[in-house]
């Protein structure tokens, strides 16, 4: 055998011992790189799941591609890092060192440290946009339900009544004004009691109907009243009419304001003393018919006292045949105008006689004391018996006494009597005293509609005996 040359050097134990630590470092670097690569893969996979949840399909594909590239580059990066970490052996020739130098320089292009992972992991959230907004379900606009049962007359009344009819369903038709609410067509229908109801219009024509905003629209189909004030219409047929622009002529300046019906409370104020001055409207009132000269007067309350309320009757159609009803009770319907607290005028349209009320006190079997004319005197009257005073009236004025005194002396009637053959009219006061004592009864000749204006007066002394 040929012996080795004495000039050849054998590897010393020290060189072998130095190679083992280098190999350990190389293995540790490879393990770190593999761990970092696995972390990158896990991070990228998590982001892929998030992208799928958000609905970004295109970004999911890009993320998958990025994961594949990272997985492929991980071993190469590990090898390059190991080569960089291992110190060059003293026995390595210069030619080999020159080959590995470019590889060591290109290694930082894809460093396996945390910074590279941060950049790779930071791209997915910054690019992936938020998903599209979830749209609210719109009412059905293409399909129509099968034809249902037609609405009955009773159901239609409930459908058009505000506050009632919830749950009523059936085939029918509605008319109203088309409006838009939340970009959806609605039909505003004027129901019973002039209250408005709103119905959502659905069906294949739902996209066409908004063109007829503020038109008069008639629809027919399946009507459902979902609440007491609104509902839904599945439109099978519809017709729209453009609202006509009416040219309103200017009202003449001298025209009277539109009259209205007086409420029961206003009628009560119109016939009450000292109240309701200025009330004007259409009403029906009842009273006793009297004459003041050639004018007819309807006395509605407190007759014969200084709180008498009376209305002069106007209107040729109603006044023609009133003379034969003087002294009777009439129901007059027309325009009431109360100019003061004590009366006014009424333009009568209809006049209807009513039976006179029975007298509250019968004069039969009663001792009566009678006074005729304006004679200041003293009279004696028995308790619960009668006293009559007859006075001649004048046109535009009437005789009356104070209301409080009328209660104390017991005034029962103040009857108007038309003179025979055109003679002067008279008024008879009938008293039935209920309390014994002496009373000064004063009579006033005052204006009919202004009892505060007195022309003259006189007194009589009444002694009521038990």
Automatic annotation (TrEMBL):
Residue ranges with Low complexity bias: 1-21, 53-65, 74-86, 94-114
Signal peptide: none
Lineage: superkingdom: Bacteria
Region annotation (Disordered) ranges: 1-28, 53-152
Protein name: Transcriptional regulator
Organism: Corallococcus exiguus
């Amino acid at each position: 055998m040929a012996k080795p040359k004495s000039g050849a050097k054998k590897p010393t134990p020290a060189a072998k011992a130095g190679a083992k630590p280098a190999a350990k470092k190389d293995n540790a670097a490879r393990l770190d790189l593999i761990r970092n690569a696995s972390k990158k893969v896990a991070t990228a996979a998590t982001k892929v799941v998030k992208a799928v949840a958000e609905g970004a399909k295109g970004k999911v594909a890009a993320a998958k591609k990025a994961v594949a590239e990272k997985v492929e580059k991980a071993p190469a990066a590990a090898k390059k890092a190991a080569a960089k970490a291992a110190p060059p052996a003293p026995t390595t020739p210069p030619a080999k060192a020159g080959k590995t130098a470019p590889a060591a320089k290109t290694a930082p292009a894809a460093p396996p440290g945390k910074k590279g992972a941060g950049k790779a992991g930071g791209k997915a959230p910054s690019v992936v946009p938020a998903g599209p907004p979830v749209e609210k379900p719109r009412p059905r606009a293409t399909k129509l339900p099968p034809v249902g049962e037609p609405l009955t007359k009773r159901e239609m009344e409930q459908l058009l009544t505000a506050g009632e009819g919830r749950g009523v369903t059936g085939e029918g038709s509605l008319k109203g004004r088309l409006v838009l609410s939340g970009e959806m067509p609605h039909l505003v229908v004027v129901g019973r009691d002039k209250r408005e109801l709103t119905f959502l219009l659905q069906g294949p024509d739902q996209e066409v109907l908004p063109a007829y905003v503020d038109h008069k629209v008639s629809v027919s189909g399946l009507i459902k009243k979902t609440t007491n004030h609104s509902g839904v219409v599945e439109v099978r047929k519809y017709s729209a009419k453009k609202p006509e622009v009416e040219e309103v002529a200017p009202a003449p300046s001298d025209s009277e304001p539109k009259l209205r019906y007086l409420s029961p409370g206003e009628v009560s104020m119109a016939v009450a003393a000292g109240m309701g001055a200025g009330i004007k409207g259409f009403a029906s009132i009842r009273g006793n018919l009297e004459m003041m000269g050639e004018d007819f007067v309807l006395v509605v309350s407190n007759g014969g006292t200084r709180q008498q309320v009376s209305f002069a009757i106007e209107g040729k159609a109603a006044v023609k045949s009133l003379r034969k009803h003087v002294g009777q009770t009439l129901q007059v319907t027309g325009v009431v105008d109360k100019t003061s607290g004590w009366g006014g005028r009424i333009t009568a349209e209809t006049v209807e006689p009513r039976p006179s009320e029975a007298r509250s006190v019968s004069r039969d079997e009663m001792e009566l004391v009678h006074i005729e004319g304006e004679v200041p005197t003293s009279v004696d009257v028995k308790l619960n018996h009668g006293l009559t005073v007859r006075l001649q009236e004048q046109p535009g004025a009437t005789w009356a006494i104070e209301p409080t005194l009328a209660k104390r002396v017991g005034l029962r009637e103040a009857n108007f009597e038309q003179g025979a053959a055109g003679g002067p009219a008279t008024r008879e006061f009938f008293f039935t005293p209920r309390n014994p004592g002496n009373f000064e009864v004063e009579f006033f000749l005052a204006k009919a509609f202004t009892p505060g204006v007195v022309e003259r007066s006189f007194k009589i002394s009444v002694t009521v005996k038990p």
